[in-house]
């Protein structure tokens, strides 16, 4: 096998892996966006169609292949909170710190986008 054919084979492997990842993400992302309000589970920032690309699906157990259709392993987090969650997790794994995954020790956001829905509907 020459150098060019090795590079081509390597490029195909990388391309297939990226395509698999993108296809997998499309499936659970679309499901999660249908199941949950478009609000970050940590900072309670609200999202619209205009900025929805900044809302990510976080896997609570950090296993991206664990995607139950009921969404029990997912939570929606903004890019910043998602990065923070993974940084904390990596620190715990690498250094054995006492920091526990935020998903386990944080009750999440306290924002309720439907808190006064009945009142708003009665105004009409």
Task: Record keyword descriptors for this entry.
124 residues; single chain; two-stranded antiparallel ribbon; elongated; 4 helices; mainly alpha; 48% helix
Could you give a short account of the major beta sheet? 2 strands, antiparallel
Helix/strand/pairing category: mainly alpha
How many domains, as an integer? 1
The share of residues in helices is: 40-55%
Uncertain stretches = none
Q: What are the secondary-structure elements, in order, as H or E?
A: HEEHHH
Distance between the termini: 74 Å
Report the C-alpha radius of gyration, rounded. Answer: 19 Å
The proportion of strand residues reads 5-15%
**Number of DSSP helical runs:** 4
Shape: elongated
Number of strands: 2
Read across the widest sheet, the strand sequence of neighbours is 1-2
Average pLDDT works out at 82
Question: SSE layout and pairings?
Answer:
Blueprint: H1 3-35, E1 55-59, E2 74-78, H2 79-95, H3 102-105, H4 117-122
Short description:
The protein has 124 residues and is mainly α. Helices cover 48% and strands 8% of the residues.
